[in-house]
Amino acid sequence: MANNRQTRDSLGANPQIQIQTNNFLASRKMNWFTVGASIFASNLGSEHFIGLSGSAAANGISVAAFEMNALVILQLSTWIFLPVLISSKISTLPEYMSKRFGGKRIRTYLAMLSILLYIFTKISVNLYSGGIFIQQAVGWNLYTSAMFILGLTCIMTLTGGLKGAMMIDNLQAIVMTLGASIVSSKALYEIGGWSELKSRYSLAVPSKVPANLTHCAKPNPRAFQMLRPLDDRDMPWLGFLIGQTPASIWYWAADQMMVQRFLSARSLAHVQGSAVFAGYLKILPLFFMIIPGMISRCLYTDEVGCIDPDECQRYCQSSVSCSNTAYPRLVLELMPMGARGMMVAAMVAALMQDLCNVFNSASALFTCDIWPLLRPRPSQKEQETAGRVFVISLVMASIMWIPVIQEMQGGQLFIYIQAVSAMFWPPICAVYICAVLWKRTNEAGAFWSLMIGFCLGVTRMAMSFMYKEPSCGQHVDDRPWMLKHVHYMYYAAFLFASTICCVIVISRLTKPSAPFRVSR
User: For residue 336, what is the DSSP state?
Assistant: First the structure.
């Protein structure tokens, strides 16, 4: 009790950060249940319902590995990393880096990179996934649907802060869990149970298959295997363990949207309790999204499993794949009229809330870490106005990025998110781990290692956009060796290891940090 009270008192003792604490951390008064449910709901947006079920329809249960990995990393982050952030009395990760190393260049770089990743992997992805759901529900054009959701989200964002967002997260988590459980139960009943799913999935081949795509139309023979051989193109087990884990550490222990919620807890005990609660909840996507996605392919093979570009374009306005429509199709076909409307409304509300959370976190990064560089000592009203104007510019950039998402990673939304994130998260995770666990890490080692990691990551990402993976049926693969033979998870492991080596070498060759910067 004494330790919790001391921690709580220290969090709000500095009057210079009180405005930021009230605006972006809900005055640090949330309990473990509220924080845990908010973390689960914030992570479990429409891109999970669309992306996880879509990848499951295309390749089986392998994407469940990401959810199981998150269960472990959540505990790691709150027992090792979050206590450091709490004792540092910070509002954002870039702010911690600034206190740990001094100077402004690392803090500014991390804030700008986080905002850039919000465009690539959060805002644009949410608009795209929400657009798919509305498109399937009411038949609107994809971009019309996205703009409709965006308009509603802007109204929500302008009317609340983190505390209101977290309370809505709690309600949303309950509604989505109940709705998803009903959809999952009806889907299993419709197909005849688990054994029937296992026998029918391997036979889920669409009726219209071009002659050159016969082998592409067949479901993955390893569909019911989560971790697969070293050279598997979807889920190599070694690549996942050494490449995806650093990316997961960054997301759960350093991403602003997650850290912001953890730091809103009233004490360290509530932070750790929220991680245990959220970890248990992370088991649910396997049953609520992944298995239903596979069932959807069995029940609606011609649409969800289409392989003919013309048929796919007619059904979902994408010539690459329609697997992302797996979950919306289940909702619209299996749910009774009243329940269907409730589930569609809940999905749209979840999407809006997820976007609202991203906007809130992006605004926090901009107003806390970037705007003060342009306007020292801004007023609270000026901070809020600058944050809202900045969010509008983020939205415009995200809309322009949607066409790129449609063409990447064979149309699998969730794998696109992981592939892009793997190019940028591991270097930040490496520097973050060194900053927390090795006192000798200094500003020069951290900054230049981040720059090297960024250059390596952006090189791979640029090459991925320049040389797209050939679609199934195209026998000529003229991509560079690094893209053709090195899975993105293995490359993420290389980024992580090389960044740590750079931190060690550069830090040893330069002056150590001042003692007061590593005192806590």
Answer: -
